[in-house]
């Protein structure tokens, strides 16, 4: 079984993730320079370096998976993870009810 | 719930409660007298702008947040054995927006675990703990019913199992018995010998991957680059995926778990490769 993606796709994917994480200044980050450097270094390769290249490709794909999954996980986390308790008003309105209101106050204020 | 815990503690602590938990001094979080190791639940305000790495004594790499050096939760200086790992960790810190979400920083967590060794174990104990999973390995436990799932498990898991048996020249086998397959002692010994060649950092990563995938077979397949992260995670969740096909996927449970498992597994696999790499990197440099 070998589901390795083509190197160029992994390369683009990683840059895309770095950009998503850092915004337009992503080209100044350490990771950007390192990734460009590594992919260039492994670009031209003879038989002898084949193993090292395979290793680098596997690692880069794992890194892409790490970045993508962390981002997707965070999206779902922000969407679904509990943010604390709701107020009685919010809880009531979730099921289509409203808390009773008392125009003159409930008597226990002040 | 968190709020009520804080409230309870503030009652117990008396008069000077909350400030202690929301101190603005960034160093206090990483210092020793903060005894909790559970940074998972807490988020902190981001207290730095710039992240950089520098090479310290003995060729190890350190992380700098503005001018401050990053420390581990145990209070030790944070160091990474090579540039790639240091950059990956620095990127995690750099990617944080307004709050530090420690549960998204898997490589940092793994480095912290390797540096602090919070459970105080040595290599031998870690190998034993990792191989304990072989007795209850996911891919060795098969079902008898329903037939489509039986067939799915046979088609998907058997190749991975056969690959590992050939690669390490061992016998593992599978079983649908509740006691699982009988793993020969020779198999355990031969894995033990193989894992002995890993260094402490790689073992930390490997054990992490094994506990995530609940499988030694799939973890070694991943580390030996027979499987990709996505494939290993899919095989680990095979029965769940089968049930999802029948009953539908629930985003806040299934997808949430899937992405978390993928992120953790990828981090662990990368950590193993990067922390066992320092010698190959040297060799590559000399070739250039």
TrEMBL record, chain A:
Signal sequence residues: none
CDD domains, per the entry: Complex1_LYR_FMC1
Pfam families: Complex1_LYR_2
One Gene Ontology term, aspect cellular component: mitochondrion
Free-text function comment from the UniProt entry: Plays a role in the assembly/stability of the mitochondrial membrane ATP synthase (F(1)F(0) ATP synthase or Complex V).
Family of this protein: Belongs to the FMC1 family.
Protein name: Protein FMC1 homolog
Record organism: Muraenolepis orangiensis (Patagonian moray cod)
TrEMBL record, chain B:
Listed Pfam families: ATP12
Stored SUPFAM superfamilies: ATP12-like
Gene3D superfamilies: ATP12 ATPase, ATP12-like
Protein topology in the membrane: Peripheral membrane protein
Residue spans crossing the bilayer: none
Keyword Membrane: yes
Record's keyword annotation contains Transmembrane: no
Subcellular location: Mitochondrion inner membrane
GO BP field: mitochondrial proton-transporting ATP synthase complex assembly
UniProt keyword list: Chaperone, Membrane, Mitochondrion, Mitochondrion inner membrane, Transit peptide
An annotated GO cellular component: mitochondrial inner membrane
Origin: domain of life: Eukaryota
Stated family: Belongs to the ATP12 family.
Quaternary structure annotation from Swiss-Prot or TrEMBL: Interacts with ATP5F1B; involved in the assembly of the F1 component of the mitochondrial ATP synthase (ATPase). Interacts with FMC1.
Functional note: Plays a role in the assembly of the F1 component of the mitochondrial ATP synthase (ATPase).
Protein name per the record: ATP synthase mitochondrial F1 complex assembly factor 2
Organism expressing this protein natively: Muraenolepis orangiensis
